[in-house]
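One thing: could you explain this record?
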Amino acid sequence: MPARDSQDATRRRSVGRLRAILAAAAVAASTAAAPASAAAPAPRQQDDASDRAYVANSTARTVSFLDTDTRTVTHTVSVPSGAADVGVSRRMHRAYVTGGHDSRTVTVLDTNRARVVGTIRVGNRPEGVAVSRDGRRAYVTNADSGTVSVIDTARNRVVRTVRVGTFPQGLAVSPDGTRVYVANLLSGSVSVIDARRDRVVATVGLGTGTAAYDVAVSPDGTLAYVSTGNGTEYVSVLDTRAATVLDAVPVEAGAESLAVAPDGSEVYVSSGFGSEEVSVIDTEVGTVARSFRVPGGAEGLALGYEGRQMYVATGLGSRSAVYVDTETDRVMGSTTVGSGPMSVAVEAEPEPVAPRAGTGRRVHWKTGEKQSGTR
């Protein structure tokens, strides 16, 4: 990690940001009772989910179903236990919604019928959720318990509880489903879970006084990106094979949620906390190449249409999901959703593709070199 001029000052800034997180969550949790599900036309019965996205509205305690072709909300489902984060399985036609502050449950939605079909009891304060590509497992961070719940999606039950670091927040599953990476906010570390044995096999420290917020994995599984705060915001880059930190990229606008382009060439970083910037890291040179503004705020991110379109949840105090053309960084429009949209997920995630020109070569971190073949 880069040198720090004052460790005490760094700690104070990190604590201040953490307090902001907790305060925001408390505001969302103390909001009045959730509204009833909005009337909507009968759900579509189709397997093609490329044009559907789902927004977890923290303050409203609802999930908005978006048709991203028409940019309209087709359904709004009430989730009284809370809507902190949402993960989706296309194969199972299910969405998993974490309750967040003052909750111990994950709500299961049928995405074809747009209704609640189950509730799963997990640990204290479930925050982040990620679903394996094959749809067989969902993983949930329980912030106040310091654990990750492993859910068998076929049976809608927790099959294992894995102890990780302090206040786990975001998490991601490797493309091949063999590893789960967990960002531990108060530990300033990443726990690496072997998904075949459901046990922690490595813990990667990110530096004294660092807070880890979100994590995303490169398409070939060799790199993990972690948004961190240690007075100045960074995205830490992990070598997943060696379980070590390769680099830390300063992100002046702020580092919150992450999304990786399907070809691995870019990492998108939302600023969070009411800011309106999305920064774009070029993985060939290892720096922020550019940024663009998202009116209303930039919190949760998701990519669709083979990475050519991005959906942005605009955060507490807002009521919109914004559409961005990633080839031009142009905002194409927005849709009104429920209050406090903090997270967004797509049912058909972009499949990994060859870098840029379709050459089948893999980008190496910060070298600009390429290697023939793919992993």
Q: What stands out?
A: The chain is about 5% helix and 45% strand. The first strand starts at residue 52 and ends at 57.
